Amino acid sequence: MMLIDTHCHLDAAEFDADRDDVVKQSLDAGVSGIVLPAVASQNFDAVIQLSEHYKCCTFALGIHPMYVESALDSDLKILESYLASHQPVAIGEIGLDYYVYSPRTYPQHIARQQRFFEAQLKLAVAHHLPVLLHVRAAIDDVLKYLRRHPVVGGIAHAFNGSFQQAEQFIDLGFKLGIGGAMTYSRATKLRSLTEKLPLEAIVLETDAPDIPPSWLGKQGRNCPAEIVKIAQVIADLRRIKYAEVVEITGANALKVMPKLAELCTPVKVPL
């Protein structure tokens, strides 16, 4: 069984003071693997170096939609060169974000997001790599671009859409990332979705240091070790054993990101 955090920004400044301790706590908790997605070309080297330093970690490379305003067109060429010289498990974190910049109010920024997203999807197709998707308030448009550029699959990170939208991602070969947001009792739609979706469609994630679970509070710093309690919440919601959640979500992560199999070590979990 493999307990995998499929989305963690371990390179963030919030971990500079105690990164070694954070990783050790994760390993002690039973975490088998941690995926570190980049958000801009400037942190490609950081996530690669962390993956080399911490053997439980691996990396994905991409340009986040919230960073395209400061990105250059040449950054896409940099990404392409890194894909040729390195071995990421996925392209990410990429996608669209209409939460902060609405299409009606910021049409130029949205057009730039869409251009970078489409260019990175084309790279994913060319390199036969899955994608780690940022889909906040933009699910329908993300799905539209995925139909235009059929990648080999990936993960819809921090998914919070409808059951029908979830089914569309699943039909396209995607898994849905479930993390700390689901642990809040008032997140009724997301908790209902977590109960009803096929477990084979779910992967675990933290988005650390962001999206802290309920027991840390909104201002708390999330960490990959929290994936253990997140998995337990899913087990409780679905009325199944914790070990079943770990086994199936871990297998899901390996299926959608096959290169993870070279990294992750099975862990023993309570039955």
Report on the structure:
- There is one protein chain.
- The chain is of the alpha/beta class.
- It has a single domain, classed as TIM Barrel, CATH 3.20.20.
- Helix content is 41%, strand content 13%.
- It has nine helices and eight strands.
- Strands 1-2-3-4-5-6-7-8 form an eight-stranded parallel sheet.
- α3 runs parallel beside α4 and α8 (227-238) packs across α9.
- The chain starts with a strand and ends in a 15-residue tail after the last helix.
- The model has no long low-confidence stretch (mean pLDDT 95).
What characteristics describe this protein?
271 residues; alpha/beta; TIM Barrel; eight-stranded parallel beta sheet; 9 helices; 8 strands; 41% helix; globular
Gist?
This protein has nine helices and eight strands. With 271 residues, it is α/β, with parallel strands linked by helices.
The share of residues in helices is 40-55%
Distance between the termini: 11 Å
Multimeric status of the protein: single chain
Q: Would you state the CATH class?
A: Alpha Beta
**Alpha-beta content class:** alpha/beta
- CA radius of gyration is 17 Å
- State mean pLDDT (0 to 100 scale): 95
The biggest sheet, with number of strands, parallel, antiparallel or mixed sense and barrel status, is: 8 strands, parallel
